[in-house]
């Protein structure tokens, strides 16, 4: 993973879609929203964080390469 | 004239003013009109790309889909986020290649990468076909807004025509620079209007957002989770994937990418834009609030769910402000779409077939095509009764067919030949055309298959057909032309 930070990008796909797949139900509520919707919103935040991490790791790698 | 209509007219005038003033001082050659001389920084590209996303689709479509279908609307919050993840990796190489070869349009990219002029023309045609439903939905939205703001005194046909005329006027006066400026105004307005409505309406009617969802769940159990068949979880997953892959395949989205100053713009955007996506959430709240408060809308009428509840809850001045935000969300993307379709037609279809055509004539032809395309879009908008989301998904089914050929062209030593690219796109598009004209789904074609397969979005089914055709034809044509693929084949 450290060698290819880009591989981390698979996580949002799995994370975002797995929630409704394994638990298609209204409850429990997440962030005050029905389960699937709340789950997706949670993953929007996590995806942003993961992309920031990838960007950070990649630019550090590029910096080290120079 | 009501105060609401007056505010709409004001919004349209401000947009036109911004367009004209942004344009002054820049020669409007083809590069300026379409890619603004590739001189736009992070913020503008961000807004142009966001301008793509926050369209009438967001504003009216998402609310209407929540109102009419419930849980399936969740896909709208999910797909953009995943699309940005993809964009982080594919847009920088696309941008770099486009800049090195001085490309201004999406078909240029395919024609150049695969060294095939006919492929460029073909991609342009697919782009135009995909853009039509996208344009139609902007006009449907404009029609709904004008109709609501006039409190029914201006009917659908007149509303759509007025909307189309304003968009045409706007495109001819402003070009992409004007659009970027208007996008700033539009985004501020839509963000504040969406956030206000998304919090205010559920709290006003139910006390809190959670209470609103609980009331909906009680009134219609199962509405807030995916159905067991039809728009099931399998539909959700395939639709999210289809739209996430197709997101940046829109000709105007690729065009907007070319306006960036450097490639890192896209990587930074991929971090921030997912959060921007949450605006959709507010609109979905509004849709669910409307579900119990203004019941009874069916089919295409669900498009007006948001405006119906705004009209029912607020005085005309507020209806006017909401409508004005709506007009801008249709104007900005509508103008980009028409501009793209017109330039695709003139520059990527007519010009390659008629090589002696001068640059000036091409620009002129593109400008003449603007009102023609607008009329076609308006015609469909008046005649049809589709939900905004159904129109967008149809466009996506077409445009996503370009994804495999685009991504494989970015690979070093791509095994995909121009014939493979051609065959893949053609097979995918033909599948979409057949399935939508015949009103077929996997379920009606193959009722014996498991539910999971039957509910797949037809666009994803077409994408699979596309990949198979691309693989087979590439393998056949690579062997014939004797490219170094033989080794791989021997092993397989």
Would you kindly provide a written description of the structure presented here, covering whatever features stand out?
- The complex is a heterodimer of chains A (66) and B (492).
- By secondary structure, chain A is mainly alpha-helical.
- Helix content of chain A is 67%, strand content 0%.
- Chain A contains two helices and no strands.
- Chain A has helices at residues 10-22, 35-65.
- In chain A, helix 1 (10-22) runs antiparallel to helix 2.
- The longest helix of chain A has 31 residues, at 35-65.
- Chain B has 492 residues and is mostly helical.
- Chain B has two domains: 3-390, Sodium/glucose cotransporter; 411-492, no CATH class.
- Chain B has helices at 3-23, 30-35, 42-53, 56-69, 75-100, 106-113, 117-149, 156-206, 209-219, 233-246, 251-258, 264-276, 279-293, 305-313, 316-353, 359-383, 388-399, 403-410, 418-437, 442-445, 451-454, 458-480, 486-491.
- In chain B, helix 8 crosses helix 15.
- Chain B is globular, with a radius of gyration of 22 Å.
- The chains are: A mainly alpha (66), B mainly alpha (492).
- The interface between A and B is medium-sized, with 29 and 34 residues.
Q: Topology of this structure?
A:
The complex is a heterodimer of chains A (66) and B (492).
Chain A: H1 10-22, H2 35-65
Chain B: H1 3-23, H2 30-35, H3 42-53, H4 56-69, H5 75-100, H6 106-113, H7 117-149, H8 156-206, H9 209-219, H10 233-246, H11 251-258, H12 264-276, H13 279-293, H14 305-313, H15 316-353, H16 359-383, H17 388-399, H18 403-410, H19 418-437, H20 442-445, H21 451-454, H22 458-480, H23 486-491
Helix pairs in contact in B: 1-8, 1-15, 3-8, 3-11, 3-12, 4-7, 4-13, 4-15, 5-10, 5-12, 6-7, 7-8, 7-15, 7-16, 7-17, 7-19, 8-9, 8-13, 8-15, 8-16, 9-13, 10-17, 13-14, 15-16, 17-22, 19-22
């Amino acid at each position: 993973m450290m060698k290819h930070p880009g591989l981390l990008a698979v996580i949002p796909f799995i994370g975002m879609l797995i929630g409704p797949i394994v638990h298609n139900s209204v409850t429990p509520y997440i962030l005050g929203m029905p389960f699937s919707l709340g789950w997706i919103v949670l993953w929007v935040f996590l995806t942003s964080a993961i992309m920031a991490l990838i960007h950070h790791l990649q630019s550090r790698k590029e910096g080290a390469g120079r | 004239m009501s105060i609401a209509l007056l505010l709409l007219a004001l919004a349209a005038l401000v947009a036109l003013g911004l367009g004209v003033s942004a344009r002054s001082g820049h020669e409007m050659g083809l590069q300026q009109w379409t890619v603004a001389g590739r001189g736009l920084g992070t913020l503008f590209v961000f807004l142009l790309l966001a301008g793509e996303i926050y369209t009438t689709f967001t504003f009216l479509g998402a609310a209407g889909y929540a109102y009419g279908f419930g849980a399936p609307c969740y896909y709208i919050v999910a797909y953009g986020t995943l699309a940005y993840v993809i964009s982080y990796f594919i847009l920088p190489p696309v941008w770099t290649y486009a800049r090195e070869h001085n490309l201004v349009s999406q078909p240029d990219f395919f024609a150049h990468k695969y060294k095939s002029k006919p492929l460029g023309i073909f991609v342009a045609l697919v782009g135009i076909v995909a853009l039509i439903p996208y344009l139609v939905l902007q006009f449907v939205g404009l029609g709904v807004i004008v109709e609501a703001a006039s409190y029914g005194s201006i009917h659908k046909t007149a509303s759509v025509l007025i909307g189309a005329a304003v968009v045409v006027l706007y495109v001819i006066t402003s070009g992409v620079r004007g659009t970027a400026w208007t996008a700033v105004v539009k985004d501020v307005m839509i963000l504040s209007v969406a956030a206000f409505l998304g919090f205010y309406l559920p709290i006003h009617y139910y006390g809190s957002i959670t209470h609103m969802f609980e009331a909906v769940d009680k009134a219609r159990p199962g509405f807030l989770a995916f159905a067991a068949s039809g728009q099931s979880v399998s539909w959700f997953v395939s639709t999210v994937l289809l739209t996430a892959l197709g997101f940046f395949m829109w000709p105007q989205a690729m065009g907007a990418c070319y306006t960036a100053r450097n490639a890192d713009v896209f990587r930074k955007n991929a971090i921030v834009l997912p959060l921007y996506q949450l605006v959709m959430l507010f609109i979905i709240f509004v849709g669910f609030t409307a579900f119990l408060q203004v019941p009874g809308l069916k089919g295409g009428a669900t498009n007006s769910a948001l405006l119906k509840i705004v009209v029912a809850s607020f005085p005309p001045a507020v209806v006017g402000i909401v409508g004005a935000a709506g007009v801008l969300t249709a104007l900005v993307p509508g103008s980009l779409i028409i501009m793209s379709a017109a330039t695709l037609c003139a520059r990527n279809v007519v010009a390659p077939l008629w090589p002696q055509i001068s640059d000036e004539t091409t620009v002129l032809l593109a400008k003449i095509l603007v009102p023609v395309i607008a009329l076609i879009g308006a015609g469909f908008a008046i005649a049809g009764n589709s939900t905004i989301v159904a129109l967008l998904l149809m466009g996506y089914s077409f445009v996503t067919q370009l994804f495999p050929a685009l991504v494989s062209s970015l690979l070093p030593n791509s095994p995909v030949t121009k014939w493979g690219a051609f065959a893949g796109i053609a097979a995918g598009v033909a599948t979409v055309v057949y399935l939508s004209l015949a009103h077929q789904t996997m379920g009606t074609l193959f009722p014996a298959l498991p539910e999971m397969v039957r509910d797949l979005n037809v666009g994803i089914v077409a994408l699979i057909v596309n990949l198979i055709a691309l693989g087979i034809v590439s393998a056949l044509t690579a062997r014939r032309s004797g490219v170094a693929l033989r080794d791989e084949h021997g092993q397989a």
